[in-house]
Amino acid sequence: MALPPGQRAVTGFPRFGTHLHHPPPPVPADPVITMVGALSKDVTLSVADLALLPRQELAADFHCVAGWSATGLRWEGVKFGAVYRNRVEPLLTPDAAVSHVVFEGLDGHRSVVWLEDALADDVLIADRLDGRPLDSDHGAPVRLVSPSQYGFVSTKHLCRVEFHTSRPPDPDRWSLIAAHQRARVWQEERHRHLSGRVVRPVYRTLIRPIRALSARGSRTGTRG
What is the DSSP track for the chain? Predict the structure, then answer.
């Protein structure tokens, strides 16, 4: 299967990210996902409860905004759209028109996603990868998986979801590596202000040092 524009396949599925020189975060004994925002009351979904919802298997590649792709991955979990329709929609405040969703991980990483992208049929809250429970390097106990968007959208160690009726404040809006608001891989939406083709060579120079730092975090972290 062809890869999106500017992507190159790599062997394996490396731990990768600008903040991942730190070890993976500790996981609570009874992890939960807290859902807040434009709701009449907060929703708390335990990871144990999530495993009891209708399951979905998904074969999908993972595309990093830096230009590499891990191919042939097999994810398992629950469709985010099903969670939204069954657990969130009934609790929306009157006349609330959700436009954006914020996914936050135990490591502090946050991704802002348009609602229509979050509700795509291939978006999962995943707890298994290639037939095994997620390990700490790849987002245990659960993570977001949005294959049609660059990897920074797929928040690891998912613990909190916020529902907003307008775009939340964005502290990285004018940073040099300001991420595109939608980050769709087939449109090559890598950068908010520059074309994907322009930033490709710059991002590729960052792959080796970021991968080395990320591996250091993996070696010093606890597995779980």
Answer: -PPPTT-EEESS-----TTTTSPPPPPPSS-EEEEEESBSS-EEEEHHHHTTSPPEEEEEEEE-TTSEEEEEEEEEEEEHHHHIIIIIGGGBPTT----EEEEEETTS-EEEEEHHHHTSTT-EEEEEETTEE--GGGTSS-EEE-TTB-GGGS-SSEEEEEEESSPPP-TTTTSTTPBPSS-BTTTT--BSSS-HHHHHHHHHHTHHHHHHHHHHHHHHSPP-
Domains of the chain: 30-56+77-194 (3.90.420.10)
User: What is the pTM assigned to this prediction?
Assistant: 0.89
- Whether residue 224 is predicted with pLDDT greater than 90 in this model: the reply is no
Strands 32-37, 158-164: pairing kind: parallel
Residue 212 has pLDDT above 80, yes or no: no
